[in-house]
């Protein structure tokens, strides 16, 4: 496992197909700044490895035995909030993907992803960004609306004007760097604002911030 970087981003990978699991781990480990610290073949094993290593990122197959990716994501986001979850799926229209995103995952990728794209995605997720295209965002919002499952967000009234600006930028899909450039502030300042918005809205990921913004009528 690669450990050449001074402080590599730690990653746990979970998939129930041995060949796929080995391939994903090898692709991620090929990057000098990433290190696969453990792998797992089911959801329960994944939780054990996350508890043991407290990785920066968990790359999780949405469908696994014993405990599926949705249940595992929900547990990880609740019990280990510093670990960001990247969901893997065979079909981008998989309804389970949206359940996982609602549970707190930061984004998703198809399993046929190339090595450069996977590495880029892990880096983005580790940095606190979300990996969710416009089509997926629209489908996610429609899914939430159809289920009427989104609770009110009383914390929205507690946001400062700048925090609301940052929330809107996140809902538009901007990265931390893009938000910083648009608001003429540093990326660290953006990260601080996002942390405050997450806390005030009791959200676990940027995806949930997008849902909150749409659900509150700030974005249409």
Automatic annotation (TrEMBL):
Cross-referenced PROSITE patterns: HTH_LUXR_2, RESPONSE_REGULATORY
Key words, A-Z: DNA-binding, Phosphoprotein, Transcription, Transcription regulation
Domain of life: Bacteria
Database matches in CDD domains: LuxR_C_like, REC_NarL-like
Keyword Hydrolase found: no
Domain Response regulatory per the UniProt entry, residue ranges: 10-126
SUPFAM superfamilies linked: C-terminal effector domain of the bipartite response regulators, CheY-like
Pfam family, one: Response_reg
Modification 4-aspartylphosphate, positions: 61
Family annotation (InterPro entries): CheY-like_superfamily (IPR011006), NreC/VraR/RcsB-like_REC (IPR058245), Sig_transdc_resp-reg_C-effctor (IPR016032), Sig_transdc_resp-reg_receiver (IPR001789), Tscrpt_reg_LuxR_C (IPR000792), WalR-like (IPR039420)
Ranges where the HTH luxR-type domain occurs: 152-217
SMART domains assigned to the protein according to its UniProt record, in alphabetical order: HTH_LUXR, REC
PANTHER family reported for this sequence: TRANSCRIPTIONAL REGULATORY PROTEIN NARL-RELATED (PTHR43214:SF24), TWO-COMPONENT RESPONSE REGULATOR (PTHR43214)
Name of this protein: Response regulator transcription factor
Species this protein is from: Occultella gossypii
